[in-house]
Design a protein that fits this description.
- The protein is of the alpha/beta class and 292 residues long.
- The mean pLDDT is 86.
- The protein has three domains: 62 residues, no CATH class; 66 residues; 147 residues, Heat Shock Protein 90 (2-Layer Sandwich), CATH 3.30.565.10.
Length: 292
């Protein structure tokens, strides 16, 4: 097509306004008379090379997008196929744990509990990956209901207690806070924020505290922990898929690279906002707001 051909204007008009009009019309260069043939040839060669490089770059980009699409499809298929056998493992482990006729020793029972908790985390990660793909493609349908945020926080905390160990995991008392949201998706957002906070709250003396406040026209949920601070330059990165930043060069990531990305997509699917507040010597607070 002609619009793919670089256009170089050759003209006796030498005013700036003429050059601007030519470039705005789609020209890539403007040469005023009198001119030398060598200069014209050099400029034409340069623009043809630039055009060739641009086309090559576009082709490589399109190819990478296609490969990325194939990769995502393969990952989605593998993860989807992992869900059923993992669910079967979970149900068997739960049966053994609750079997009244079990003769497991206390040590074996503790090992079984740890295995069950790990399998539950894996199943939650699988769900997060599948739903994150749906939300990115706009195929995730929200089941909106009037949600009681304090109740949802209590539920999320109760499901995450086994992972807390000696750390304090609690819900701060507060007044009513309600907004329209998908309760299942919202509970998983809270669970992911709790799980991420527990990873960095110190084992001894560490805490994770949830709170909700009814603001004018919205509800704000916070998840606070007393782990290490997150430098400001890294804070936007931790909400990206597989986005991890190191802690003082110690190869200690600030996030798992998936859970916070799921939280961001889920909150944005509700039309909400999510972020983090962290500075040296102060608790780290992850927050999100939904219009109420």
């Amino acid at each position: 097509a002609l619009n793919e051909i670089p256009v170089v204007f050759l003209s006796a008009l030498n005013e700036t306004v003429d050059k601007v009009r030519a470039l705005e019309a789609g020209g890539v260069d403007y040469i005023s008379k009198p001119f030398k043939a060598e200069e014209v040839e050099a400029r034409v060669r340069t623009h043809l090379e630039l055009r060739r490089q641009k086309l090559l770059l576009q082709q490589n980009y399109d190819r990478l997008r296609e490969l990325e699409k194939m990769r995502d499809g393969l990952v989605h298929m593998i993860i989807h196929d992992l869900r059923s056998p993992l669910a079967t493992i979970l149900s068997r482990l739960d049966f053994f744990r609750n079997d009244p006729g079990s003769s497991l020793s206390p040590a074996a029972a503790r090992d079984l509990d740890e295995t069950l908790k790990t399998a539950e985390v894996m199943l939650r990660l699988i769900g997060d990956l599948l739903d994150a793909s749906k939300m990115e493609s706009g195929k995730m349908k929200l089941n909106l209901k009037e949600c009681d945020f304090p109740w949802l926080m209590d539920y999320a905390v109760s499901t995450m207690k086994p992972l807390a160990g000696p750390r304090e995991l609690s819900v701060e008392p507060g007044g009513p806070a309600r907004a329209a949201a998908d309760p299942e998706l919202l509970a998983r957002v809270m669970q992911n924020l709790i799980a991420n906070a527990l990873k960095f709250a110190p084992r001894e003396g560490g805490y994770v505290r949830l709170a909700a406040r009814q603001l004018k026209g919205s509800v704000r949920v916070t998840v606070e922990n007393n782990g290490p601070d997150i430098p400001a330059r890294y804070q936007p990165e931790i909400f990206e898929r597989f986005g991890q930043v190191d802690q003082d060069g110690k190869r200690q990531p600030y996030s798992t690279g998936l859970g916070l990305n799921f939280c961001k997509l889920a909150v944005q699917a509700h039309g909400g906002r999510i972020g983090v507040e962290s500075s040296p010597g102060k608790p780290t607070v992850f927050w999100f707001e939904l219009d109420g």
